[in-house]
Amino acid sequence: MDSALSYFAQYLCNLEKFDEFKNWLDNLIKSKPLLFEELKEDEDFIFCIISLRIHEEKFCEAFELIENGKFTNPERFISLWDKAHYKLKEKEKGYPLTSLLRFRSRKKHPPPKSICPSGKRPSSNLPEHARQTLKQWFDKHADYPYPNENEKKQLVEQSGLILSQVKTWFANTRRRKKITAPKSNLKYGKIMKNYHQYNCSSQILTDDVHYALDTSMKKVGLYPDEENVGQIKMANKKLQDQCLFKVEES
Q1: pLDDT of 185-238, one tens digit each?
Q2: Do residues 91 and 135 lie in contact, with contact meaning Cβ atoms separated by under 8 Å?
Q3: How far, in Å, CA of 151 to CA of 172, rounded?
Q4: Which residue range or ranges hold the Homeobox domain (predicted)?
Q5: Residue-wise DSSP of 26-49
Q6: Dist. CA 49–CA 25, nearest whole Å
Q7: Which of 42, 48, 105, 164 is the most buried (most CB within 10 A)?
Q8: What is the DSSP string of 108-162?
Q9: Global pTM exceeds 0.85
Q10: Does residue 70 contact residue 99 with C-beta atoms inside 8 Å?
């Protein structure tokens, strides 16, 4: 088995370069199908393929790979199982899930025996060394615990996690410690200014639109970088679809 190819796949997957990974994988399947079949015996390689299928929203394929897999380290696949169900539900609803909805999703869709033989979830999906790596960085930068893109990539390599796991860990940790981003009040004010500018009454706004706006405002206090922008754009699109008003993206 060519371990170099598996490492390359992990590199692309961990940094969420899924378009590049998909093109590379398609070329591999076409040019060297036997090698691809051999690589499918590699647990790390399968992890990457499942991550790609989730990104492509091919949820049935992702579920099938997890349910039929035989893994030596099955617990790390639990996060993929949950992530696939989160994204599937978000696609149905049209907005990000709240913590409560994610909790309900985990209760409704317990991991299969292939990755959770005992039927009981572990207390945490992150390995201890990964948590310690992230915690050390957080404690060292306690005055401003917001890693930039290069620092996130370094943490991915050091922890062995994927990029989304690193982002989620920092977001959750900042939330627990009640840390908000500087200038968040300014951005919050801009959103509220747009909200009141159009004199939209609560009777006009649907529940989904209320949720989208509320989510965008909450995210301002949690994410000062691209995640915040993405949430505001998502809310902006939903509000534009309702022909109500436009949230300022700044």
Answers
A1: 444 444 444 444 444 433 334 444 444 444 444 444 433 344 444 555 555 555
A2: no
A3: 18
A4: 117-180
A5: HHHHHH-HHHHHHHTT-HHHHHHH
A6: 9
A7: 48
A8: HSPPPTTT-TTSS--S-SS-HHHHHHHHHHHHHTTTS----HHHHHHHHHHH---
A9: no
A10: no
